Amino acid sequence: MIISEEWLTFEKEVLGQRPLFTGTVEECRNAYQATSDNLAPQYPKPSEYEVDEHWETTDGGIRLLICTPRNASKTSKLPVGVFAHGGGHIAGGVGPEKSSFDDRMCRYVAQEAQIIVIQIDFRFGPEHPTPAQVEDCTSAYKWCHSNAFKFNGDQDRFISFGSSLGGGVAFAVTLKLIDENLGSLVKGIVAMCPAAMHPFNVPEEYKSMYKAYDETWTGAPMQDGESMVVFYNHNGGTKQLANPYVFPCLHPGLRNLPPTYISVCGLDPVRDDGTVLKYNLDKFGIENKLDRYDGMPHYFWVFPQLKDSERFHANVVQGVQWVLSL
Known about the structure:
This protein has 326 residues and is an alpha/beta fold. It has a single domain (5-325), classed as Alpha/Beta hydrolase fold, catalytic domain (Rossmann fold). It is built from nine helices and eight strands. It has helices spanning 5-15, 25-39, 100-113, 132-146, 165-179, 212-215, 225-235, 271-283, 307-325; strands at 51-57, 63-69, 78-84, 116-121, 153-163, 188-192, 260-267, 288-297. Helix 3 crosses helix 9 (307-325) and helix 4 (132-146) crosses helix 5.
């Protein structure tokens, strides 16, 4: 297990401990909320981004936070990214009060990429076990596309966007739409450290490249392999480990995906979920880019003190712009 010197120094001098999200559902939620609350003062205030926000609710009752670049032309339609947040499908949420770091990412991308970013307030497990989150996000994506006129969105430039398990959802939503003959609704995918395969159900074809869980099973910061399985047990994913919409690496239709940008962290149990996805994108000749942050743990970019955090955010913006340019 190789840990970057920057992270080790930060962990020792700033955090004073090795953070890890694990435990009961309540403990995971409390830790996630505490991290969000502690980091919020270190970010620009939401109002300091050149972004306007408003809420909408889909016909199915799913709430959406829509962030629009403030200085965007009022006459030209804007591209749209429909975002599924992290939190293991049991924690986090939409807006700065629930997840300051995901909200920061969305506002930053909206401002810098000049794109409308829509955050989906989907249901959580274990109260609503997976695939409820995929169902909510697919429904929300369709509503956003059909109602793009309400927020000046360009229906020809919609992307599926997400982080961690939300990154897996970005793939799942796209695949569900493709299976419903609605693939034209998705111009591309942007997925940050996507969680897209259960470690207890890895097809033989992928086993030689799927090593991250073994390397990070215990002791990795933020999320190790063991704690990732804890989240899958909480959200219902372990019971759905063969479901290709819950774990899109298993889907037989990967050959039909649109252009895709992926980022992975070297010290992350889900690193090789991204590796497997890129392997398939390459195999099927689908345009793709992948940025890798060696020695960095899952979701490291939430800490603004890290130099790689700034680079990560900038690279996501470039990834969004690249997908939209094709």
